[in-house]
Amino acid sequence: MGNSDMMENQVSEYDVIIVGAGLAGLSAAKVLHEEGKSYMILEATERPGGKVYSKTSEDTSRYFELGAQFINKEMIEIVKLIEETGMTLTRNEGTQNSIVISDKSKELINLDFSDITDTLGAISGEHFDSKPLDQVLEKHISQKRKRQILKSFIAAETTVNSRYINAEAMKNLVSRVTTTTSGLEYQASDPLSNVIKYLETLNKDAIHYLEPVAKVKETKSGYTLKTKNKAKHHTKALIMAVPPTAASRITFSSTIADHYRPYLESYTDGAVIKMTFVYDTPFWRERDIKDKKKSIYGVIYSAHEGVNLMDSSKESGENRLTLFIGGDKAKELADVPIEVKEFYARERLIEVLGEDAEHYKDYEISEWQHSPYYGGGYGAIIHHHGIPDANKTLREPHRNMVFASTELAFDFPLFMEGAVRSGQYAAKRLLEKMSENVTE
Fold first, then answer.
1. How far is the CA of 326 from the CAs of 97, 209, 211, 212, 274, in angstroms?
2. Model-wide pTM > 0.85
3. What is the DSSP pairing of strand 319-326 with strand 307-311?
4. Do you know which SUPFAM superfamilies this protein is assigned to (predicted)?
5. What is the mean pLDDT of the chain?
6. Same domain, 128 and 65
């Protein structure tokens, strides 16, 4: 939609305005659409989807997922959306009878989110409030090697180094990753942008692009929003479907700011660089590991905190490896030439997989470190000075305003599933509150 109708001082009236057209915002809008409410979505950038973003080659022979990519079958809401678009689930090639190893010793690693829960849960009788996670791990895990691997795993999974993470909040977050499977074993059969296009089509008349919200003012009848383009919109209720860190950069009127500011400012952005390499042959599936032939599914780089590698090939698809560079290392590489990033990635591949890893036929890089609207990593994380349960306050409506984002989800925070569920929950709870206010 063009911006010709978004002129200065124009005021429009809606039941609900949604700020942000990522998965959370679009999922909230789907609920409002089904309930027959009038709504508008204000999106700061030129496209919907947030960190769900697919890039197709010019000849359409190949595509890359620049952001979110992997799922499992317990993520029922995103699976439902994938199937509603006519796509299916495709199993990842490397998930069967393969292993995850460390970079230096090539030792076998069995880690998932439950290991963080178990580690923190085993430290009973201790308050974690305001303690950085790395201090807790240093105190209670004496074996340096084990500690390094766990810290690197955490930085890779959250894209934030453990020295910035609130330990109590981390314990809370991982307890909400409610999955009984150990991995993300599937991908969509086609680009995930198809899901975004589907949701965009449902809401196409409601989305206004390139309209970053600058100010939110509470009024007697709701809220007035002003964008950086000087457009003005009025609404009875408001869903802020952006990361808490992005919301913290918006100016709120004092009554709202006083309530929300401490919770929004409890979060810090992650940082991630994602690099996918395409090969003619899957040489990593027949490696000598401890004198046995093994298929390598993933690598955790204990010597490079926040860096991990995984086989991202689909069954019967191209042979691919994806390297994730998260946390401080992603920030360090943010402003160097792309050739330097490629060199760093290539060195990480070669040091574990040998010189075969150097002979890729194509690769794609995506970076999120500097995004003011999407956040720099998979999701924002509560820092060690933050309020450990800030998510609980932000996801519940207050004065007809509510926040929605993957960070706030009851289930699967930092995943696409969390974003979808958070958007749905925010819309339903807000409508309940609005209905209660009318009947009172």
1. 27, 29, 29, 27, 9
2. yes
3. antiparallel
4. FAD-linked reductases, C-terminal domain, FAD/NAD(P)-binding domain
5. 90
6. yes
Beta partners for residue 363, in sequence order = 277
For residue 392, give its domain range. Answer: 13-52+192-268+381-439
CATH code of the domain covering residue 251: 3.50.50.60
CB 187 within 8 A of CB 52: no
Q: For residue 5, is pLDDT > 70?
A: no
Cα–Cα separations (whole angstroms), residue 433 to 399, 412, 428, 430, 439: 9, 25, 9, 5, 10
| Domain contains 3 | no
Q: How far apart are CA 251 and CA 42, in angstroms?
A: 16
Q: Which value, to the nearest 10 degrees, does the dihedral of the CA atoms of residues 61, 67, 72, 78 take?
A: -90
**Amino acid (one-letter) located at 128:** F
Among 367, 398, 428, residue at a domain's last position: 367
Asked whether 64 and 54 are in contact (CB, 8 A), the reply is: yes
Q: Is the pLDDT of residue 31 over 90?
A: yes
Helices 113-121, 167-175: axis angle to 10 degrees equals 130
Mean pLDDT within 339-363: 95
Contact indicator for 241, 50 with CB cutoff of 8 Å:
no
* Percent over 90 (pLDDT), the chain: 71
With cut-offs at 50, 70 and 90, classify the pLDDT of residue 136. confident
Number of domains comprising the chain: 2
Identify whether 7 is part of a domain: no
Given a contact cutoff of 8 angstroms between Cβ atoms, the answer to whether 274 and 64 are in contact is: no
Angstrom distance (rounded) from CA 282 to CA 270:
31
Predicted confidence (pLDDT) at residue 200 exceeds the cutoff of 80? yes
Give percent of the chain with pLDDT exceeding 70.
90
Q: How far is CA 125 from the centre of its chain?
A: 32
* Phi/psi of residue 136, nearest 5 degrees: -65, -45
pLDDT band at 104 (very low <50, low <70, confident <90, very high): confident
C-alpha dist (Å) from residue 336 to 325, 333, 339, 344, 370: 14, 6, 8, 11, 13
Clarify whether residues 280 and 361 are in a common domain: yes
Instruction: For 98-131, give one letter per residue: b (16+ CB within 10 A) or e.
Output: bbbbbbeebeebebbbebbbebbeeeeeeebeeb
Q: Which DSSP state fits 10?
A: -
How many angstroms separate the Cα of 383 from the Cα of each of 163, 215, 371?
Answer: 9, 25, 19
Gap between the Cα atoms of 62 and 55, Å rounded: 9
